[in-house]
Amino acid sequence: MSSAKKSTYILPTIVIAQFLCTSLWFAGNAVLPDIVKNFPTETNLLANLTSMVQFGFITGTLIFAFFAISDIFSPSKVFFICGIAAALFNLGACLPLSDVHLLLLFRFLTGFMLAGIYPVGMKIASDYFKDGLGKSLGFLVGALVFGTAFPHLLKTFTASFPWQYVIFGTSALSLTGALAILLLVPNGPFRTAGQKFNFRSCFDGFKNPGFRSAAFGYFGHMWELYTFWAFLPGMLLLFNSKHPSSALNIPLFSFLVIASGGISCMIGGMLSQKFGAKRIATIALAISGLCCLLSPVFLFSGSAYLFLIFLFCWGLSGTADSPLFSSLIAKNAPESLRGTSLTLVNCIGFAITIISIQVINLLSKQLNVQYLYMVLAIGPVLGLWALLGKKSH
C-alpha cells in the first residue's frame, strides 16, 4: 500500500486509539461517589485517586524514557501491550477491596501504563508525519481530552446500572484501541533510533530562552488544567446544592465541559498554522487564567445558563494551548536531545498537577469555597509572564 493511501487512515486510527485508551484516565473519578461508599472514612479520596494516576504516569514516562523502550521496540507493539495492561489494572477497581491502598495501587499502575499510550501515540504520529506535526498533535491531544471526559458520559448512560459498568466499559475501549494500533499501524517511515535518556544533558534545553519560556508556559497551564478537571463535578454538585431547582446532570455536563476542550485543541492546532503557536497559546492561557480569577462571580451565579457558559469557556480555553506548548517545546529543544527534553518537561508538568490538586484539596478545608479556584490563576499568570518575557517562536 502506498504511503499516500496509508496516511488517509493512519492519523484517524492513532487518534481514535488514543481516545479509546485514555478513557481510563478519569474512570475512577467518574464513579467516585460510588467508590466512596466502600471507604467512608477516606475524606481525600478524590485528590488521592487523581494524584495516583498522575504519579503513575510520571513514573512510567521516566522509566520508559530511561530504557528507551519505544526506540528499542516497535512503538505500536509498546502501545498495544500497555493498552492491554492498563485495561486490566483498571479492572482492579471492581475487586472487593477492603484496603484503600490497593485501590490507589491499581490507579497508580493504570497511570504507569498510560505512559506507554499517550506519549507513545505522539511518537507514532511523528514517525508518520514529519511535516505538520503541530496539527497532528492538536488532534492527538484532543483525543486525550475526549478520552478523559468519556467516563463521565458512560456514567450518564449507565446511571441505572452498577457503577462497575463504567470500569468495564473503559477497559473494553482500551482493549479495542490497543488492537487497532497493533493491526492497522505498523512502524512509520520516519522511525529512527533515538538517543537514550541522559539525566545530565536533559536540562540543556533550558539554556535556550525559547525552550525555557515555552516550558514554563506549559507548567503554568498544567497547574490549572487537571485540577479544574478533577474538581469540575464538585463545582456542579455545589451549584445544584445551592440551586436545587436547576438539577444539572453532573456526569453529563462534566463530560461536555471537558470534551469541549478536545475541540479547542484541534481548532487551536489549525489556527496555529496561520497565526503561530505562541500567539494562540498565549491567548488561550490568558482566557483560562481570567476564568480562574472570575470563578467567584460565575460559580456562585444564580443563573444556570451563566454558570454553564462560564464552565464551557473555561473548558475550551484550558486545553487549547496544550498541543501548542508541545510543538513550541519540540521546536526549541536541542535536535539531539528532543526526546529527552520533552520527557523531562512532560514529567515536571504532570508532577505539578499532583501539587496543584493536593493544594486545592487542602485549601478547600481552610478557605471559603467561593474563592478557592482563584488559586489556580497562579499557573496562567506565571506562564504568561514566561511567554511574554522571553522569546519563543
Automatic annotation (TrEMBL):
Gene3D superfamilies: MFS general substrate transporter like domains. The chain crosses the membrane at residues 9-32, 52-69, 78-98, 104-125, 137-154, 166-185, 216-238, 250-268, 280-299, 305-330, 342-364, 370-388. The keyword Transmembrane applies. The keyword Transmembrane applies. SUPFAM superfamilies: MFS general substrate transporter. Residues 1-393 form the Major facilitator superfamily (MFS) profile domain. Pfam families: MFS_1. InterPro entries: MFS, MFS_dom, MFS_trans_sf. Keywords: Membrane, Transmembrane, Transmembrane helix. This is MFS transporter. It comes from Pedobacter jeongneungensis.
